[in-house]
UniProtKB/TrEMBL annotation:
Database matches in InterPro entries: Seleno_YedE (IPR026366), Sulf_transp_TsuA/YedE (IPR007272)
Species in which this protein is naturally found: Desulfosoma caldarium
Pfam families to which the protein is assigned, alphabetical: Sulf_transp
Protein name: Uncharacterized protein
Alphabetical UniProt keywords: Membrane, Transmembrane, Transmembrane helix
TM stretches of this protein: 7-27, 61-80, 92-115, 127-144, 156-178, 198-218, 239-259, 279-298, 310-330, 336-358
Domain of life where this protein originates: Bacteria
């Protein structure tokens, strides 16, 4: 109980943000792509590619960090008796929100965690992304204040809560059985990038270990980037926001120490300079996160503690990654994809419709 209280406290959240802020640049130093030591959206995109859900050959790798996030959260939930299988809160809506959250994130080229890490690495384009994230979350808070709800979850069988952790265990087995063969684009059933961001990764054991640690700590602290902005806007609460700031600060200091800081807008790793679409893509993602009740990292941690609805959101993000690359929605360092603009507009329309129609009372 003492450990639980430490990590759930204001300074506990700051500590967890600091740990993530230090470990993410270390993962980058050990092989992960630039300013992408940890990016839930990018890593889930790579996993979708590794499973053959899309065929963008430069982003295919079964990222151990994501597996670790879920399993680390699972371990923490069991140790502290917080594994609570539950489901039934508008799962199909959460799936759709996961799809559009991923589409928006891949227009920007990063989740909220990567937006902070990009800023900490000197990427000025991240300023537009973070501003868009805050704007999208702000729109979401307007719906929350006017009665928006996805309904109550219900307790359910432990089997439901175990589904996503078991899927992640299955992915880990596949990674062990079919390791990458140098220079080969496929090993057994898994696809592997031989160039591009997907070919850049830290050693599997290190990535998995850090993922397990982050999953454990985040489950204990309720770390959530979207929640930090939502609580700041709605309640003027800085409890979670302290972790948000801490992550950026410690990532910045670690990047300086490791020689990975490069200030500017042009020539940043896996980034583009179309400022409006950096803003709009992350605004769409922020709105979807707010309507779904958590950022992509938080959804993984919730799934690890038995939340079947969060698991549906995660699956939606994987499908959204497949759509993004199969349909030309995702951006690249050259700019937004050929159909990315239309996807952002459609995504906003769908999310606004969800927010407007799932209110218990009118404004």
């Amino acid at each position: 109980m003492a450990v639980k209280n430490v990590f759930a406290s204001r300074w506990g959240v700051v500590l967890v943000g600091a740990v993530i802020g230090i470990l993410a640049p270390v993962l980058q130093k050990l092989g992960n792509p630039g300013n992408m030591g940890i990016c839930v959206a990018c890593m889930e995109r790579d996993m979708a590619g590794a499973l053959g859900l899309h065929r963008a050959q430069v982003v295919q790798y079964l990222r151990p960090e994501i597996i670790g996030f879920v399993l680390g959260s699972l371990v923490a939930a069991y140790l502290f008796k917080e594994f609570r299988p539950r489901a039934g809160s508008a799962p199909i809506v959460r799936f759709v929100l996961g799809v559009f959250a991923m589409i928006g994130a891949l227009v920007f080229l990063g989740c909220p965690w990567r937006a902070m890490l990009r800023l900490a690495g000197g990427d000025g384009n991240a300023i537009l992304g973070l501003a868009g994230l805050a704007f999208g979350v702000w729109i979401g808070t307007l719906f929350l204040k006017s009665g928006y709800t996805l309904g109550r979850t219900q307790s359910t069988s432990a089997t439901v809560g175990w589904i996503l952790p078991l899927i992640m265990l299955g992915f880990l087995v596949l990674l062990v059985l079919f390791p990458q063969v140098p220079g080969e684009p496929k090993s057994g059933v898994l696809f592997y990038s031989v160039k591009g961001p997907g070919a850049m990764h830290a050693p599997v054991a290190v990535s998995l270990g850090i993922g397990l640690l982050v999953g454990f700590l985040a489950q204990r602290s309720r770390f959530c980037t979207m929640g930090a902005l939502r609580d700041l806007i709605l309640f003027r609460s800085t409890h979670l926001f302290g972790g948000f700031v801490s992550l950026i600060l410690f990532a910045f200091l670690t990047n300086l120490l490791l020689g990975q800081f490069k200030a500017g807008f042009v020539g940043q790793p896996v980034a583009h300079t179309q400022h409006f679409w950096n803003f709009a893509g992350m605004a769409l993602a922020g709105l979807a996160f707010a309507l779904a009740g958590g950022c992509p990292g938080r959804q993984l941690f919730l799934a690890g503690e038995g939340d079947g609805d969060a698991a549906v959101f995660v699956i939606g993000m994987l499908v959204g990654a497949a759509f993004s690359h199969n349909f030309g929605l995702a951006s690249s360092p050259q700019g937004i994809g050929p159909h990315g603009m239309a996807a952002v507009i459609v995504g906003f329309a769908v999310c606004l419709w969800i927010g407007l129609t799932l209110r218990k009372k009118t404004v």
